Amino acid sequence: MKSLVLESPGVLKLTDMQVPEPEPHERLLRVTHCAVCRTDAKMWSQGHRDLRLPRILGHEVCVVPSDSSGRFVVWPGTACGTCEYCRKGFENLCSAMEILGFHRHGGFAEYLAAPADSLVPVPPELPGAIACLAEPLACTLNALDRVGAAPGERLLIYGAGPVGLLMALAARSRGALPFLHEINAEKLARSHDFRGQIGAELHREDRPGDYDVAVNAAPAWETLGAGLRNLAAGGRFCVFSGFPAGDPVPAGLINEIHYRQLVVSGAYGCTRDQMREAVGILCAFREAAQRLIEDTIGLPRVADAFSSILSGMVLKFVVAL
Ligand SMILES: [Zn+2]
Ligand SMILES: [Zn+2]
């Protein structure tokens, strides 16, 4: 099968590989679409904590089982079902976690093998290129589940790249009011129609105490300080994007959390239930979601797509296989 393999950082090879042999609990799946994630681009340029090389990347996939009909998106985790985290419903934090496209071969290939119980059905009316946005959308739902986003609450999102925009869609679908902070004019222009369609407003200047929730969908440290300042007392901040290494957190920021009883949570990955909810949201907001797709490409163009993604100016590339 045609496969795109990351051999070492920066070295991607389009090659022929053996079709995977599924284990008894797995299914052999033909990939129809795989969206390209910023994390894929980062793994290509600098590696990742959870990446094992060589690897076929790609964890945002839409598939058809090779032996039957129907279409599915794939929850990229594997969970033991018995550890403390699994029993608490935090299957994305399972101590035996192995992630598709990180520890196991992913979707930049014609076929992949994944556990049968990781498949989430896709209704016939939802195109595969849109369906594969279910995974990143589910990750934003996980963030909202950590910090809450009740109907009518004001949610401030730092970054209007694809993930920030999906976060706004997730918030809107739950009845919260999303506001996007973005300083890049090009990104604002590209997201204009999507923002209009889902009713996400722009946050143009600091409004201390004005928001119930803030989330960073951009790695800059400034998003933490500004986000905390803009929260009302008792407000909640979600660390969705990791921060760059090296910068110490000033005591003043921590004291802000202390004096105003702010709540700070992390979020990483998603659960199967969140993926089911994400598929439903994509069906309900199909036209808006279509606007998040920058281009549909083939495997040979993925390296170029990585460069464009790292430039930060583009929406979602989807590989069609
Ligand atoms: Zn992703
Ligand atoms: Zn577990």
UniProtKB/TrEMBL annotation:
<keyword id="KW-0560">Oxidoreductase</keyword>
<dbReference type="Pfam" id="PF08240">
    <property type="entry name" value="ADH_N"/>
</dbReference>
<dbReference type="InterPro" id="IPR050129">
    <property type="entry name" value="Zn_alcohol_dh"/>
</dbReference>
<protein>
    <submittedName>
        <fullName>Alcohol dehydrogenase GroES domain protein</fullName>
    </submittedName>
</protein>
<feature type="domain" description="Alcohol dehydrogenase-like N-terminal">
    <location>
        <begin position="24"/>
        <end position="123"/>
    </location>
</feature>
<dbReference type="InterPro" id="IPR011032">
    <property type="entry name" value="GroES-like_sf"/>
</dbReference>
<dbReference type="GO" id="GO:0016491">
    <property type="term" value="F:oxidoreductase activity"/>
</dbReference>
<dbReference type="InterPro" id="IPR013154">
    <property type="entry name" value="ADH-like_N"/>
</dbReference>
<dbReference type="InterPro" id="IPR036291">
    <property type="entry name" value="NAD(P)-bd_dom_sf"/>
</dbReference>
